[in-house]
Amino acid sequence: MNFVMLVPIPSLALLLYLSHGAVAADGQWSEWSDWTSCSVSCGRGIRKRFRACNPAPGVGSRWCQGKYLQTENCDTTVACPVNGGWSEWNKWSSCSATCGQGITNRYRSCSNPIPMNGGRPCEGAPQESDMCFAIKECPRDGGWSNWSRWSSCSVTCGPGGTINRYRSCNNPPPMAEGKPCEGPKQQTRHCRASRPCPVNGQWSEWTEWSECSVSCGRGERVRGRACNQPAPQHGGLDCDETEAGELQILSCTATILNCPVDGSWSEWSDWGSCHSPDCSGSKEFSISMRQRSCNNPLPKHKGSMCQGVFLDAGFCNQPINCVVDGSWGEWSPWSCRKLVASRKRVCDSPPPSNGGKKCPGKNVQIHVRGEEDEEYREACGGKFPSDDEDLEGGSGIGQGSGDGIADDG
C-alpha cells in the first residue's frame, strides 16, 4: 500500500485564512495505516506502517509532532533453506599396504553448515584418494629360468665323463624375504668318449696313524699312502703331490701323567655384535667382545696356565639389533649310492644373525653299507642299488641325478 504524506502549502493556507478570517490550527496526525507485509518470505524480517499530518497546520501553526513511520520485527512461518558447506579436510590416512603400493585417503563432511530446510547439499566428493608406497617391498618368491643346453662331455676319451646343464633363480629373483627357488640348479649325466684314455694314478687309503714319537710332551704321529689305486698306466699322470703327498704328520701329546703340559691360548674369536642394556635397535653407547680359550693345549700335569686375559672388550657406537640363533630346516630326501646313503639339512629356519649361535649338530647324516646295513637299507627304501644305479629317497633316478655339496651348519 502506498501513502502520500501531505505537506501544507503556505500560500494556500494564507489564502484560506484571508478569505475566511479563520484562526490557524496546529497539524493533526491521521490514523496509522495497516502494517505492510513482512519484508522476507522466510525467517525473520521487518514490517512498517505510516500516518500523515492531516489536517496540515495553518500558517504559523506547529507541524505534527512525532514520527510518521513505525517498524517492528516479524517472523514467517517458513524456515529459510540453508545450503550445506564442507568442513576442512582431515589428515591423510595411513597407507593401506604394509609393503609395496597402496592407497591413502582423506575425508571431509558436509557440516559447515549442514544443509537444512531444503537447502542444497555440498557439491563435490567427501573423500579423496592418492597412491602411496610402503617403506618395504612386498615379498616375492623366486622362480627358475629355463634349463641351459647340455654342456660338452667333460672327457675326451674313455668313460667317466659328465655333462651338465644349469638354471638360475632369476625368473623372477626372490625379493624382500620371498622364498628361494626349490630344487637343484644343476643337473648332471654321465657320458663316454669314443676312445680309451690313459689311466692316471690314484692314491690308496691312508694307513693307520703311528704311535706318538715321544713318551711325554708334544711329538709327532705319521701316516702314509701309495700311488697304486690304480698306478698310472698308458702315459697317465702320477698322483697329485699337492694333495698332501705320500706322508702326513700330526702333532701329538704323550699320555704319561707326570709330563707337564703348559697351556696355550687359542686364536681370538671374531668380535661379537654390539650390545646395549636393551635391544631396541637404537644407536646407543655399547660394547663388543671377543674371547679365547686356554685349550691349545689345555694345561695338564702341573703345566703352566696361559698368561693374559681370556676376554677382550671394545666400545662401539652403532645400531643394536637383537641376536637370533640359527635353527635347522627339514632334512632333504636320502641320496643313495653303491656304498653310502646321505641326506643333508640347512641352518636357515632361521639362519643365525647378529651374533646368534650356529645350529648345533651336523648338517649331513651318512649311513655306510656294510657297517650299517639296516640303516642303509631303510634310508634307501629297502633296496641296495646296483653298481650303475643311484637311488634318491628309495627311488631309482638313473644317471641323471644332480648332487649338491653339503653346507656347514
UniProtKB/TrEMBL annotation:
Keywords: Disulfide bond, Repeat, Secreted, Signal. Pfam families: TSP_1. It is found in: Secreted. Residues 393-403 have a biased composition (Gly residues). Residues 370-409 are annotated as: Disordered. Gene3D superfamilies: Thrombospondin type-1 (TSP1) repeat. It comes from the Eukaryota. Residues 1-24 form the signal peptide. InterPro entries: Compl_asym_regulator, TSP1_rpt, TSP1_rpt_sf. PROSITE patterns: TSP1. PANTHER family: PROPERDIN (PTHR22906). This is Hemicentin-1 like protein. It comes from Argiope bruennichi (Wasp spider).
